[in-house]
Specification:
The complex is a heterodimer of chains A (about 300) and B (about 250). In chain A, about 30% of the residues lie in helices and about 20% in strands. Chain A is α/β, with parallel strands linked by helices and about 300 residues long. Chain A has an 8-stranded parallel β-barrel with strand order 3-4-7-8-9-10-15-16, surrounded by 6 helices. With about 250 residues, chain B is mostly beta strands. Helix content of chain B is about 15%, strand content about 35%. Chain B has helices at about 75-80, 115-125, 185-200; strands at about 5-15, 20-25, 40, 55, 60, 65-70, 85-95, 105-110, 130-135, 155-160, 165, 180-185, 205, 225, 230, 240. In chain B, the strands form 3 sheets. A 7-stranded antiparallel sheet of chain B has the order 4-3-7-1-2-6-5. Chain B has a 7-stranded mixed sheet with strand order 11-10-9-8-12-13-16, sandwiched between helices. Chain B has a two-stranded antiparallel sheet with strand order 14-15. Chain B is globular, with a radius of gyration of 17 Å. Classes of the chains: A alpha/beta (about 300), B mainly beta (about 250).
Chain lengths: ~300, ~250
């Protein structure tokens, strides 16, 4: 057994594998299938202050090795989360990451204030949801608006602040640097790629919102490239995600320089796939004679 | 029953019509499903197709589960090609099925197309009921022999008129003649029935279909509108009461 413990901006994770926001509910949904406390962390479903009903119409469309979703941040709201869902997340033993989305600056500030006073480990600021109009991703496209919202949230957030970036940003490296400069303690990337599907029988777009977010193994090579670029451009830790579905996939991100990884869509393929990934990383480390997972971070970088 | 994720042996996987297949799987000690529940079924290696396919329980018993399914795309085509003796992954039993213990008196079970699948097991599980089974098909009926002894009457409607009465299955009966209507089929058919039942004061249960990703209530991809907000078809459903769901 290698040492899988991972320091993520001062928070110790049991291992570098985190269940990604929006794919794992609040942990409890997966508890019938395995001990979710074995995860390094769980990132909650994206929360907003008042809660949201989510989007109308079809919300899921499968694509080759991927899935497009248009959930629209359906969530019970920050206060209901603190009352109904946080107790289980806290108790289960994985690090608690509260994912906060929003559609305006005040919503982000109110949410961050409430959440960072609660017993969470990390606040993940979602400026990258492509499915909510005038929000989420709107802040994650241009560096200037991202800098503004991250700076403001930084001032009210008493917990480590991780900013989740959109691959739809105009320039992912400059975006990462802007968030670091604004006081982010860590970055997670990437969220979903803006995508589209058309129902050819009905001759109309599949999603009521027209565009929606593509995730799954289909996006992994592009996500990896972005994580590699960002790891070379910032000093704060980076959590890599985008289509990870095996230990080998996760190792690519760690070798590119990521401190930890998140597993999202693959949770739908096999509910305990995160355990396979954790065990696979452990076996890899043993096979190659590494004592700790921290030793492999960035080993594939050509700029080391 | 708590859901489980298991790899199971296929006992048989036979063609029923040009597009419909029937697969019997050994549950190997995994929990028995209730009527109206379903499984997320997967029968291929790798990530393409990415998502498992939600398939309802057509029959169950003696440690086995049977699926009656229509080939609609790549996933179901791959399932149809699996040999007896091969393996299939099941996540389930998932969802909330029919409250069969609550149903009594005169019952109309109404199906359209492959919506027949879950209603066979459901009809067989009803106790102290007089069940009339109304089923609509495009062209021809299938799998009705399994209903023998379980229902009082079976009536068929087809789009083409090749078998039974030509036209809509909903024209075969009047909801006012029943205490309960249990249905699974195309959305338009269920909307029409649900409304007719609400108007006539007849209790009505509908089994909904949605595109699904996780099957455990986590992704919120399969929600439907209800009087109590958005509910997951995969978890709080697929069976809902007509007065609760907003179609």
């Amino acid at each position: 057994m290698s040492d899988l413990r991972t320091d993520l901006c001062g928070v110790e994770l049991k291992n570098p594998v985190i269940a990604a926001s929006g794919t794992f509910g609040f942990g409890q949904e997966f508890a019938p299938f395995f001990d979710v406390g074995r995860l390094g962390g769980i990132s909650s479903k994206g929360l907003t202050m008042g809660g949201k009903y989510g989007n109308e119409g079809q919300r899921i469309c499968e694509t080759p090795s991927g899935v497009i979703n248009s959930i629209g941040l359906q969530n019970p709201g920050v206060e209901a989360f603190l009352r109904d869902d946080l107790p289980f997340m806290r108790r289960c033993g994985a690090a608690v990451i509260a994912n906060l989305g929003g559609s305006d600056l005040q919503g982000y500030l109110d949410g961050a204030t409430l959440l960072s006073e609660a017993d969470i480990d990390i606040l993940e600021l979602n400026i990258s949801c492509p499915n909510v109009k005038a929000g989420g991703m709107a802040f994650g496209i241009q560096c200037q608006s991202a800098h503004q919202v991250v700076s403001a949230v930084r001032k009210v957030c008493k917990k480590p602040l991780m900013v989740k970036l959109s691959p739809n940003a105009e320039n992912i490296v400059e975006m990462a640097q802007a968030c670091e400069d604004a006081g982010a303690d860590a970055l997670s990337l990437v969220n979903t790629f803006q995508a589209m599907a058309i129902d050819v029988e009905r001759r109309q777009p599949v999603f009521a919102n027209l565009f929606a977010g593509l995730s799954g193994p289909a996006i992994r090579p592009i996500a990896l490239r972005m994580v590699y670029q960002v790891c070379g451009a910032v000093k704060i830790p980076v959590v890599g995600l985008g289509g990870i579905a095996s230990a080998s996939d996760a190792l690519e991100f760690l070798l590119a320089g990521a401190t930890a990884v998140q597993v999202g869509t693959a949770n739908f393929v096999k509910p305990d796939i995160c355990l396979d990934i954790i065990d696979g990383i452990d076996r890899y480390l043993e096979r190659h004679g590494f004592a700790a997972v921290s030793e492999i971070r960035g080993l594939a970088r050509t700029d080391r | 029953m708590p859901a489980a994720y298991t790899v199971n042996k296929i006992l048989q996987n036979d063609r029923v019509t040009e597009t419909v297949y029937k697969m019997k799987v050994d549950l190997g000690g995994a929990p028995q499903p209730a009527p109206g529940q379903f499984y997320m079924v997967r029968g291929w290696e790798g990530n393409d197709p990415l998502l498992s396919r939600p398939i309802s329980v057509n029959d169950a018993g003696e440690g086995t589960v049977t699926f009656l399914y229509e080939v609609r795309g790549r996933g179901t085509r791959l399932l149809s090609q699996l040999p007896a003796g091969g393996q299939v992954s099941l996540l389930g039993p998932a969802g909330t099925g029919f409250p069969v213990g609550e149903v009594s008196g005169r019952v109309a079970v109404v199906t359209g197309g492959i919506g027949l699948a879950p209603m066979v097991y459901t009809a067989k599980s009803l106790q102290n009921c007089q069940v009339d089974f109304f089923c609509g098909f495009r062209d021809q009926s299938y799998e009705l022999e399994s209903l023998q002894g379980a229902v009082q009457r079976v009536a068929v409607a087809t789009d083409s008129g090749r078998e039974g009465q030509k036209g809509f299955v909903t024209d075969l009966f009047s909801v006012a003649d029943y205490d309960w209507v249990l249905t699974c089929g195309p959305q338009v058919m269920m909307e029409k029935l649900g409304r007719a039942c609400l108007d006539a004061g007849v209790r009505c249960l509908l089994s909904l279909e949605r595109h699904m990703a996780c099957g455990v209530g986590a992704c919120l991809g399969c929600t439907c509108k209800t009087a109590h907000g958005a509910k997951c078809v995969c978890k709080e459903g697929p069976v809902f009461r007509a007065e609760e769901v907003i179609l």
